[in-house]
Amino acid sequence: MIKAIFFDIDGTLISLKTQQIPESAKKALLSLHQKGILLFLASGRPPKNIRYVQDMMDFEFDGFITMNGQYCYHSGGLVYENWISQEDLRLLTPFLEKEQIACTFMELDYSYNNFINDRIINLYQTIGQTQKMDPVDDVRRIETHKVYQLNIFVQESEEFRLKNFLPACKFLRWFPNYVDVISADGGKPVGIDKMLEAYHIRLDETAAFGDGGNDIDMLKHVGTGIAMGNADNKVKAIADFVTLDADQDGILYALRKLDLL
Question: pTM score, two decimals?
Answer without folding.
Answer: 0.94
